[in-house]
Amino acid sequence: MFSEKCSHSLLRDTVNRRIDEVCDVLSGKRIPKGETFAPYPTEYRYITVSDMGEKYVCLDTLQYIAGHTEKQISRYKVRNGDIIISVAGTLGKLNIITPDLDGVNLTENCDRFTNFRGIIPEYLYYVLSSDLIQSQIEASKTKNGQPKLALERIRNFVIPVPHQVRQEQFVGVMSSIDKYITSQQAILNSYCKVRIGLLQQLFI
Question: What pTM was estimated for this model as a whole?
Answer without folding.
Answer: 0.82
